[in-house]
Amino acid sequence: MNTPQDSSLGREVAYPSQYDPALLFPIPRRGAREEIGLDEAALPFVGHDRWQAYELSWLDRRGKPRVAVATISVPCTSPNLIESKSFKLYLNSLNSTRFDDDEAARHCIASDLSACAGAVVTVRFGVPVLVEDAEGQSLDGLEVAIERYGPPAPEFLSADADQLVTETLSSALLKSNCPVTGQPDWASVSIRYHGPQIDREGLLKYLVSYREHAEFHEQCVERIFSEITQRCAPQWLEVEARYTRRGGLDINPWRASPGIAHPTRTVRDLRQ
Fold first, then answer.
1. What is the pLDDT of residues 173-226, one digit of tens each?
2. Is 108 a catalytic residue?
3. Which residue is catalytic, options 112, 185, 250, 269?
């Protein structure tokens, strides 16, 4: 089984000069999900990992460089997530590769990523629009004392069963760390739900308790979804984290209760 320690993370590597899909490194989702208590055969959510690539280039048939940005969607039902450094190295391996046209380049990228993830990955050129204001009600202005920065503390989560609401809460204070290199991962998180009203101070304390936690982006979002579900019992729930860019890539995991439609409109935060 591939583990993060087997990847190129934290190692000095030469950037590739030739196209090489073998650079892509899959990490099975199963192990981290078992730690959270999730059953791969009966996931409590639907969703995707939306990558946004800002440094993408190849050559046309005459050798003239082409540049693009792209949005990549990996289904959460794929057996593997794609390790981010390997993703960056792979994209750079396209820099000197000739394609007959842009569609040929897009198809190549989609095919290689699908093979790595073990499921159909979609690739389209372009990235979502930029928005300045956070969705829903921001938690970040709450006057609350915080002393817990890790590990994640689901005991902070609670909800008032006598108050049923539909609302969106957000915070720009989510931070976790890479489990291999220890580098910080910064994100804004949006939580939309219907059900007992979640205690806002407790939710903010809970999100900040990820600050010294080491886990991949996708796994953090699945943990947040699972622990809010267990502690607050929403009738339905959506969680999306929008992580800031590193090496020309950012990642935006989205998880939602079954039956919730995928977002028809996606956006980027100012920090992206």
1. 999 999 989 999 999 999 999 999 999 999 999 999 999 999 999 999 999 999
2. no
3. 185
**Length in residues, the chain:** 272
Q: Could you give the CA distance from residue 167 to residue 44 in angstroms, rounded to a whole number? A: 20
Two tokens, residue 244: 């800031």
Q: Give the span between the Cα atoms of 166 and 119, in whole angstroms.
A: 33
Q: Is 185 a catalytic residue?
A: yes
Give the pTM. Answer: 0.93
Helix, strand, or coil here: 206? helix
- What own/partner pairs with CB < 8 Å and gap ≥ 24 does 134-138 have? 134/170, 134/172, 134/188, 134/190, 134/269, 135/168, 135/170, 135/190, 135/192, 136/167, 136/168, 136/169, 136/170, 136/190, 136/192, 137/167, 137/168, 137/169, 137/170, 137/200, 138/169, 138/170, 138/171, 138/172
